[in-house]
Amino acid sequence: MANLIVTGGAGFIGANFVHRWRKVAPADTIIVLDALTYAGNRANLDGLDGVELVEGDICDTDLVSKLMADHAIDTIVHFAAESHVDRSITGPDAFVTTNVIGTHSLLKAAKTAWLDKGSGMPHRFHHVSTDEVYGSLGPDDAAFSETTAYAPNSPYSASKAGSDHLVRAYHHTFGLETTTSNCSNNYGPYQFPEKLIPLFVLNALSGRSLPIYGDGMNVRDWLHVEDHCLGIELIIRNGRVGEVYNVGGGQELPNLQVVEEICAGVDAAFAADPSLAQRFPDAPAAQGKPTASLKTYVEDRKGHDRRYAIDETKIRSELGYEPARDFPQGFAETLAWYLANEGWWQPLLERARLNAR
């Protein structure tokens, strides 16, 4: 049995991880620590028994220390982060505070509990990061590996790079038992509708434009969130202490192709289920028009990295990781989830509209 703190566990990837861990380890203690900012959602944890949600900030070192002592925590799985690149361009301060100072707060609390008090308790601090810390690839460049030099290009990726370095330093300097994973673009259930796939799906259902940055040929490696959570579980259980593991989906696609998959998937769903036209009358597909008619091209984002690709040889060879889905299967599952869970995403859209007034 393990006793876990999952930071950011009411967010997108964190909540999916909590669902997975509760299923595979039902007797473990799980404390979710989440500030419940705009992207955190209590509803993401609905249906889970024995999971305690603590609303709090990872920068509150005293709170983290108290939770660790009260629950004899031996594992921290650190998802909590500001993660939207566009927001980091308009408001970078929050990214430095949460991603750098917040991670350092957790590391200090972990070092105190696990090392300074001399308990000798076996422990693990797993830090979840991003492939964006490696910068941008040219069309013929080799994929990012764990030895690729860091070259972050946005305030978001720079703040994550800083947090990665702190985790590494706490292992090498103090002996904290850490692991880090750098993942590619995630998608799947519970993703806040500011990221490409849920944003475009919900825009398609409401007849809003599908804004494509630049020429739409920026390339990303797409990873279903449940495959990502499998990778994290393997690292926590069997990964070598102090190591970094890249987790990818092996699905390298230009954004334009992803948008085309979304449009085709929505059109096919409406053709197969006539009730969708009654539920979403503003969708072009409800009016016999192609969803692709909503595509528009907008000015490219500042500092927009051209291509990301993950070399996941290390996690495959050492830990037996293998994603279960290709992108067409993963997207079909994701689209079905959003169509079946309007009660989850409608309140988020209403809240966003109210906040925009």
Automatic annotation (TrEMBL):
Pfam families noted in UniProt: GDP_Man_Dehyd (PF16363)
EC number: 4.2.1.46
Family the UniProt entry places it in: Belongs to the NAD(P)-dependent epimerase/dehydratase family. dTDP-glucose dehydratase subfamily.
Taxonomic source organism: Blastomonas aquatica
Catalysed reaction, written as an equation: dTDP-alpha-D-glucose = dTDP-4-dehydro-6-deoxy-alpha-D-glucose + H2O
Keyword Lyase applies: yes
InterPro entries: dTDP_Gluc_deHydtase, NAD(P)-bd_dom, NAD(P)-bd_dom_sf, Sc_DH/Rdtase_CS
Gene that this polypeptide is encoded by: rfbB
Protein name, entry field: dTDP-glucose 4,6-dehydratase
Essential cofactor(s): NAD(+)
NCBIfam families tied to this protein: dTDP_gluc_dehyt
Stored PANTHER family: DTDP-D-GLUCOSE 4,6-DEHYDRATASE-RELATED
Annotated ranges, domain NAD(P)-binding: 5-333
UniProt entry keywords in alphabetical sequence: Lyase, NAD
Enzyme class: lyase
